[in-house]
Structure formats: structure tokens, C-alpha cells
Amino acid sequence: MITKEEWLEARDQAWEMLKKAGIVLTPEELERLEVADFGLQELKTIGLEVMTYVNTDRVCAKEIIMFPYQICPEHLHPQVGDQPGKEETFRCRWGEVRLFVPGSVTEPSLAKLPAKRAKNFKVKHQVILHPGEQYTLNPGTWHWFQAGPEGAIVSEFSTHSTDEFDIFTDQDIKRIPEIK
Q1: Which residue, 64, 60, 61, is CA-closest to 33?
Q2: pLDDT 10s digits, 118-145
Q3: How far is CA 51 from CA 36, 101, 102, 106, 141, in A?
Q4: Over the range 144-163, which residues count as b (16 or more CB within 10 Å of their CB) and which as e?
Q5: DSSP letters of 57-79?
Q6: Taking a C-beta distance cutoff of 8 angstroms, is the pair 114, 170 a contact?
Q7: If you placed Cys at 66, which of 31, 70, 92, 109 could pair as Cys (CB 3.0 to 4.6 Å)?
Q8: pLDDT in tens, 6-43
Q9: HSE, side-chain direction, 13 A CA sphere, residue 4
């Protein structure tokens, strides 16, 4: 759970990063910006700032804003009803994002993990995305990602998003943000 003050601070920092990248949001979109701390109260380390532009029965488009070294924790998008799970493409717009997916362990890894949660990050094949580079994940693929030293902005294009059903390796996580 985060406070309204923490939400405002994160929103304003995300807005500054978007402006720096030349990405424009309307005032209404800025008010809808999601600040997700995953219920861990470690927003600067594990968290996301997300602007969802559209999420229909068929498609979803988002901007994911990440502060320096901020992590989206390891998870997968499971089948929900008759839908096979979310297929998603990440396109780096600004900064650097380090995406970790199944495959051979990448050495050296650029991941900077908090010691107390490191056991919850099992996939270790690293894909580094710079502006203009993208990567597509199939439904049901375990993955996590971390911003580089300047932070990152990633456009996500996917099938219908059902993030509330995501499965995380860290059992302490609550996907839907709570603001007190």
C-alpha cells in the first residue's frame, strides 16, 4: 500500500521522464497513471508506473515508466477463461530495459536485485533493449524486467490485459495497487 503523497511523487517523476522522452500525456491520462508497488512498499526498487491507453477485448496498449533500476517482478500471464494468456511486445522508447526470460543464464548479468527478494527471480536469460528495440513474449512465459541506470520507458502492445490474474514467483505480491 502506498500513500497519496507517494503516488503523487511517483506520478510527477514519471511525467518528467515522459516529457524528457517526448511522450505527451493529456491531463486526464496523467490522473489515470497507475503507480504499482505490488503491495511490497518498496516502490523505488520493485514497482512500475503505467499508463494504459486502451484495453479492449482484443488489444491493449500501455506506456510503462520505470525509475532507475526499478524492477517489475517475475511473473507470467496465465490462461483466463478461454483466452490463452497475454501475448505482449515490449518496445523500448527511452533509456534501457533489461528483460529476463527463460533460456541459458546470461553472464555477466546486469541485474541489480534486492538481496531479500533475490530468490524470487528464477529466469536469468537477459535481453537488453535500447530505444527502438523490441521483444515479443508468448502467453504463459515467465519474465521480469528492470530499468537501467537512467530508468526506462517501454511501450507495451499486447492482447487483452488481465493483469489482475498474473502469477508471481514472490507470494508476497499484490498486483492491484492500494492507496491509503
Answers
A1: 64
A2: 999 999 999 999 999 999 999 999 999 9
A3: 11, 24, 27, 31, 23
A4: bbbbbeebbbbbbebbebbb
A5: SSEEEEEEEE-TT-EEEEEE---
A6: no
A7: 70
A8: 999 999 999 999 999 999 999 999 999 999 999 999 99
A9: 2
Q: Match 527502438 to its residue by C-alpha cell.
A: 132
Q: What is the Cα–Cα distance from 91 to 81, expressed in whole angstroms?
A: 28
To which residue does cell 504463459 refer?
140
Cell numbers linked to 117:
527478494
Length, in residues, of the chain: 180
The DSSP bridge partners found for residue 145 are: 72, 99
Q: Which amino acid is at 7?
A: W
8 A C-beta contact, residue 97 and residue 148: yes
